[in-house]
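The record is given unchanged here:
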Amino acid sequence: MAVPKRKHSNARTGSRRSHDRLTPRQLHSCPKCGTMIPTHVVCPNPNCGHYMGRTMVEPE
């Protein structure tokens, strides 16, 4: 059975884990109402409901 001969240093462990962090959601503003929404999502604002220049959800 393979067992490490030496302990890995903290720098080596940190270098390996450097890409494991969480990245924030990519947000953009709705061109019609200005609400910050994730990309490729219909605007959740009840008075808007736009996606890619078209009305997808009728305003209340």
